[in-house]
Amino acid sequence: MSRPESWSAEAFNPVPESENRIHADDVAHAYGFRGGLVPGVIVSAYLLHPAAAAWGRPWLERGHAHVVVHSPVYDGEVFRVEVGRATHQRYEAKLIDEQATHCASAEVSLPPAPPEPPVRRGDPLVARAHEPPVASREVMERLRESGLHAMRARWDQSSEITRYLRDPSAMAPICRAEGAANPAFVLGLSNWVLGQNVRMSPWLHLETHSQHFAAIEPGTKIVVEAAIDGLFEKKGHEFADVEVGVFREADDGALATIRLRAIYVLRPPH
Questions:
Q1: How far, in Å, CA of 179 to CA of 118, rounded?
Q2: φ, ψ of residue 68 in degrees (nearest 5)
Q3: Are 256 and 212 in contact (CB under 8 A)?
Q4: How much is the pLDDT for 1?
Q5: Is residue 270 one of the residues assigned to a domain?
Q6: pLDDT value at position 109?
Q7: Is residue 248 part of a domain?
Q8: What percent of the chain has pLDDT over 70?
Q9: How far apart are CA 19 and CA 58, in angstroms?
Q10: Is the Cα torsion angle 136, 141, 142, 148 positive or negative in sign?
Q11: Residue 2 forms part of a structural domain
């Protein structure tokens, strides 16, 4: 097993037409950004690429990561992930853009064994024709009390995020050659389950704590459960902390847990 290494690539926004319009140039400009934002889960995947490349399948079976997105990353710009304090079991990393801005950071580890896996609660699944309510503090408080609906997903080449680089051949071998779900897809499940329960646009994915329990193999049917754990306001933005469990539908086996922090309502642009 090799040691994680620094690397560089061109940032990629695969979802400019996403329902979250912060990834589109016009809305992003209105909020003061230079252009549509590369999704936070893609930025996070850049920081986790060294783990996936160096540790491969063991990373997807027991790896843990804490990733924070500090500043926007834009499509087509070159970034560098600088890996520091690297051993065969852990590393720290930061993502630096072309303007030398520290855009994101991560603490990543490969423990000898995963913690006790979560147990699926059996939350009711969101109905196919469900129209989620528009995000507000009142709505989120209600959903915090009543609980969120679970979501079905499937990992294959028709999934929403099948790659985190424009050239998929440059992804980590465990994702490229073996077809295991890439880090952006795994973290993206936390976004999508929240989006199935409440309508948000524009909104920002800011931070995740994630724990792997098993690789998500091609064709895997998935159930994602979630619960709102915390809500708060800061500088005019409304924040939510969401606890997410990812399970195989076939046997309820745990695949991952994610704690997501997001701004679900941005303060109005000036």
A1: 25
A2: -125, 130
A3: yes
A4: 73
A5: no
A6: 98
A7: yes
A8: 100
A9: 34
A10: positive
A11: no
Residue 217 belongs to domain with CATH number: 3.10.129.110
State how far the alpha carbon of 169 is from the alpha carbons of 15, 173, 176, 219, 237, in Å. Answer: 19, 8, 6, 20, 38
SS3 content of the chain, % helix, strand, coil (to 5): 25, 35, 45
> CA-to-CA distance for 62 and 78, rounded, in angstroms?
30
For residue 135, the enclosing domain spans 7-113+124-265
How many structural domains compose the chain? 1
In a domain, 156, yes or no: yes
Mean of the per-residue pLDDT values of the chain = 95
**What is the rounded CA–CA span in Å between residue 170 and residue 174?**
11
Below-70 pLDDT ranges, the chain: none
Whole-model pTM above 0.90? yes
Strands (E), 90-236: 90-96, 102-109, 151-154, 204-212, 221-234
How far is residue 40 from each of residues 3, 36, 190, 246, 258, measured CA to CA in Å?
A: 25, 12, 11, 19, 14
Q: What pLDDT does residue 17 have?
A: 77
CA distance 249 to 120: 10
User: Tokens 């399948």 sit at which residue?
Assistant: 57
